[in-house]
Amino acid sequence: MATFGTDTKVLRETINTVGMPADLVARLEDMLAEIDRLRTDVTARIHVEQMLRYIDLTIHLPWMKRTQDNLDIGNAARILNSHHYGLDPVKDRILEYLSVLKLNKDRWENESANSIAGSAGTIATDRKLSHAILARRAPILCLVGLVGTGKTTLAKSIAEALGRRYVRIPFGGMSDALDLRGQSRVRPDAEIGLILKGLRYTGSKNPVMLLDEVDRIAEHARGDIMGVLVELLDPEQNAAFVDHYLDFPFDLSDVLFIATANNTTHIATAVLDRLEPIQMPSYTDEEKIRIAKDYVLPALMHESGLTKENLEIDDGIWPRLVRPLGYDSGIRSLERTLNSVCRRVARLIVEGKGNTFRITPENIREFVAAYDNMV
Q: Where is pLDDT greater, at 205 or 132?
């Protein structure tokens, strides 16, 4: 973080190496010249600090940094299957989506190679056209489903499959469009919006950005926030997204946006037009048991420091763990129950009361408190 004593010579050298546009470079150089002029003026300290903060933010944005995409569909299928049981229709839609990404990427690369002898403007136009085609043929995914059905973890799996970095932007309860777009620097406490914060956090220009719970925006701010979403999701507009704090266009066309929602009722029509809703199905009891055995319990045991030798659950216990404790369509209740079991076993081991525990119908009350009053 640049501070009052920062050497402006170092900042000048950095500005010319991060690949930002020439107009912005000129703006920052003017600021550095003003900082040098005001360095000895104690009354201008706050103004200097604000300029240094702006410069520091700007040079740490990923103007040119990208990760290399892995568009191997077979690898993507393996990753999706390793993290999620079932959901075959959803996985098929995701793999189709990634296939379109690959074909459009190959096409754009071929067009760029064929245009390399042309003007830079022609290449830029081809690239913009490619993004427009991509948006039309493969709209932004919107995973729609009830709590606990795996929407967020699917988005993480897509990022892992692509080899991209991942960042989540929470929309639940968001009450101001400035949270996304940033605040003007005329305010002393101004800061960048969540979109550019996410890019700075990932250090990549092409992350997978999860727009989580876009249907749970505060009612009074819905119109303004949906307006920003339209700009974010439109490839003709997001190539020049302007954050109020940065006050300079930033190209978001390389970002892969994925949205989630519990339902689409409260999502503006203009936003829905740019999304492809994918319905996340509810899990049956049998699917919950399979997910708990093969995915949830091993992960929770690892997090709790337990091994396979420490905890075993009888097959006959699983239906009782799923119902009546897990009436939700997802696995949140079941996950909480298993987490409490792991914590209980960990405590018993630490207290020296044993090293191997087996949960049976006879002792289930000792490990699951909710069964204390059940037959």
A: 205
